[in-house]
Amino acid sequence: MAFYPLYVDLEGRKCVVVGGGEVAERKVASLLECGADVEVISPDSTPGLEELAREGRLKITRREYRRGDLSRATLAIVATDDNAVNTEVYREATDNQIPVNVVDVPELCSFIVPSTIRRGDLVISISTSGSCPALAKHIREELEETYRDEYGSFCDILRGFRARVIDKYDDPKERKRALGRLIESDALDLIRAQDDLELEERVKSCM
Predict the structure, then answer these.
(1) Do residues 46 and 131 share a domain?
(2) 132 is in which domain, residue-wise?
(3) Residue pLDDT, tens place only, 159-169
């Protein structure tokens, strides 16, 4: 199956995670990072999930899943080892056209979660379309060594620079050239060196 790569805005949207173990905790963390409104449904949950609930960052419904729990959900993730539960959640989700991922059960997934690197606004995702997640993880670990935290800072600079370029140049070609000058400059090296004064001058010179 060929999957269509897509980034989804989950800010403030209800996402249901069925299961309360370590895998569920990892899935919850990634959803919270995107600003989702997360509900966990599980009779038991990890200390990490309990702490997030105490902080008011998610809701835990402490019982087994029941049909109807996906009401008004934008997305569902299932992380249990109970095939009957996995299948029931999948059926409710598909009946209501809710995207669903049952962890490690590809035949019960309408979407898959790629292996992802986040550096601020920079997001790099790697997928093998479910054929070998271990390879996607291996590639991600290699890329993490290349794309470090300074890329997040660089994205912040480029966002502001791009807005200034749009104000300054009417010609799209001139805008593209200005952005290219900054991207191809030594700005990343200056960020790594924490040389803020020289970095400011470099940004000005690329304008």
Answers:
(1) no
(2) 114-147
(3) 999 999 999 99
